[in-house]
Amino acid sequence: MKNMKMEFSKPLKINKDPVHHPNHYVVEYCGKTFEAVEVIEALNLNFNLGNAFKYIWRMGKKDEEIQELEKAAEYIRREIQKRKNEKTWSTRKEKDEKTWIDEERDLLTEETYRV
Fold first, then answer.
1. What is the pLDDT of residues 17-50, one digit of tens each?
2. Any domain includes 15
3. What φ, ψ does residue 104 adopt, rounded to 5°?
């Protein structure tokens, strides 16, 4: 089977708005023009994942490819750490809620049987 690789065109050079539509974030594919920010918003990516996507999207169009990949990797590391912390917090919160429910149940049981 042939090695299939999607080829995107080089950044469009017709763009004259480097602030709002920088060329390194715009590609043309199958006759349509896409901007990184549009894809990030359509996928509803958070800050870390959006930045990782952005650096991969523009790889080789603005800075050195290795540098772009390192930047993307940094944001992916941040996202992994954030999710690990959220999982720890969520587990701790669930544990606290269960403890609270158990304590309330025990109190109600004690009061019910108190004469």
1. 666 666 776 777 788 888 888 999 999 999 999 9
2. no
3. -65, -45
